[in-house]
Sequence to fold (608 residues):
Amino acid sequence: MPEQHGLTPTMTANEVNDLLKQVYPQLNEQYDFYRVTEVFPGGCTVRLNADERHLRPGGTVSGPSLFTLADIGGYVCVLSHAGPDALSVTTNLNISFMRKAEAGPIDGHCRILKLGKSLMVFDIDIVAGPDRQTVAHATGTYSIPPKRQTTR
Amino acid sequence: MPEQHGLTPTMTANEVNDLLKQVYPQLNEQYDFYRVTEVFPGGCTVRLNADERHLRPGGTVSGPSLFTLADIGGYVCVLSHAGPDALSVTTNLNISFMRKAEAGPIDGHCRILKLGKSLMVFDIDIVAGPDRQTVAHATGTYSIPPKRQTTR
Amino acid sequence: MPEQHGLTPTMTANEVNDLLKQVYPQLNEQYDFYRVTEVFPGGCTVRLNADERHLRPGGTVSGPSLFTLADIGGYVCVLSHAGPDALSVTTNLNISFMRKAEAGPIDGHCRILKLGKSLMVFDIDIVAGPDRQTVAHATGTYSIPPKRQTTR
Amino acid sequence: MPEQHGLTPTMTANEVNDLLKQVYPQLNEQYDFYRVTEVFPGGCTVRLNADERHLRPGGTVSGPSLFTLADIGGYVCVLSHAGPDALSVTTNLNISFMRKAEAGPIDGHCRILKLGKSLMVFDIDIVAGPDRQTVAHATGTYSIPPKRQTTR
Fold:
């Protein structure tokens, strides 16, 4: 599968989880729903442990819950590969929903398509259910702020 | 602004708010964050009263919160114009984030671009701040389930 | 309709047409299919005079032809509002096709949603037919290269 | 890479090339620019042999040329996996451009994310250059018309 070569993460999954807890407490509030499960060169895996709170009419996991997983997947790619600047922001995200997902563990397999100086493009396959079928697929762009001067 | 002509809503904003509370309690849980403020022929206006819970690093309203507003805008268009079948689902949503939004009232101006038998396409301008600038813009598609037989 | 205020074009429609002919001869080759018809503060109108060459199976105007119109609409917005640097490039374009369009004049009404230093976001309503219904809608982002030094 | 299992193509690459020539002569007019190079279960590979005609300002392959390749990739997936009904149409296509591509062979690796009765969702990685880097990535949806009655 084509992707950008030569990328090296500078943070582990646990380090990113700790950073998220610190800079983005709203993400999980009192529960650990969204977690980084793996960071690897050129991508990451993120998980949503979906329960009843994430459902929509029809009893399936809601679009906003899956969007959040996709968005977090891109955020983790930026944090782990371009440095832990929490101020990177999404500029565009396109998500297609293909199948219904029931409550349970939902995994987002995320890869970096391009890491430039000011933009990162990624895509993510979101899989769920006993046979881990793709339930959604998203492509997005993060804007990376200019490196800030280190001052004393 | 071009749009589909000849559309007639069959529900008011209040009726849709009541329906949402009933079929989608997860949306607002114990608070009234997301509200329909207007339903008109060919579109609707939805509002997010964003507070600290909706912020992300940098103190601005998070992407998932704005995505939710966009998704709800499309859902309200379907419910109010194609009949109150809660099982319509998003098949695709593309959102661009243009400016940062601070906590406060955020309005989504939503119009139906096409209402067909099985698909509805909409777009939404999301505005915020004292001068109501566009902070995000989204386009999406809802799949409308076949009309169910009315049985006694 | 919300949009970015305070924008001022620096080129007219005719000036942009001349520029396109010079820097992008492939666009129209020997025919004048794609034209700028209007440049106004915050947007532009572009036209495709679709003939048989632009049709796809079913006898309707092809997706790539409408995509080209959308892409040109954004390009004209950049050229006319951010200066005639031909090297601005599309980074993302999302297009939805709503109705079939027959051969004939097809107009793209394009507005700038955000003009920043390095990115421009736009959307475009593409209308066709005797009642000028929306046949497609697109949202896109252009990357604007840094201003080049003027040297003698 | 997750995808839909159990798919079986019913046409070969050559059969699809012949069908395209017959139903969509505008695609290649007098030249063979766009070709199907492979059809396999769950996807296909398509190629654009880009020459000077496909370039844009800056001397790189234009967005519309890459969009066309993406759109054709999805069309070939539908034709080869859902039956040769030429009237399937794109309802949405989102494309991100990551790197510049020079003239030469450009390959689109296309996979079916979902093949349903009335919709097919696909994505495509477009690679080019001596090291076949990803230059663009797209996700799209095709609408499949209802099976037509075979009448004698």
Remarks:
- The radius of gyration of chain A is 15 Å.
